[in-house]
Structure prediction request, 205 residues.
Amino acid sequence: MRESQAADARPYHHGDLRRALIDAARRVLETDGPSALSLRAVAREAGVSPAAPYHHFKDKSELLDAVGHEGWMMLNQAMAAAKAKSAPGEACSALGVAYVCFASDNPALYRVMYDRARNKESLPAPTADADTPYCKVRQTMIEAGADPADALELELATTAAWCAAHGLAEMAGFKQFEPLKAAVGGELAFFKAVFAHMGLSPRRL
Prediction:
């Protein structure tokens, strides 16, 4: 029943099949988990024929690459919005909080993003080289005082900030943190407090 209802509720609009398939794949991931994802399941979710996905993706792996790429674009947008709204001097923390919230809100997509990026030489670039989540962190480090001429120190600072956010994202849901969250005023306040205690500002040598 669920499959037929999905097909009726989400008819395919001509000219946008690839977009419809990626969106359908994200819904399957978040609803049923990665093990349920297949081209046939995605076709059912999108309301198209089982053969339709093969017009854009040769196999499940290629579809997952596209879904992961979509995730990096979404993360980039979330981090950009958070930075734009951040108070002076809090941009680094704002990026970290946005990262952790994105991972918490999109757990299956987040896993796919890293699974698909794991064996690549660099984190995927969603648009251009200068407009990626990682580059956004690097630029924010420069704005916070890092010396752009010291390439090694800048990369270390950026990597430290990225790993800090990734680590908190991995552990944010642990039950042992519930008392701390309550003590500081909720989950968002907890994230901000943790980043404040990480000392993410770049070193000034």
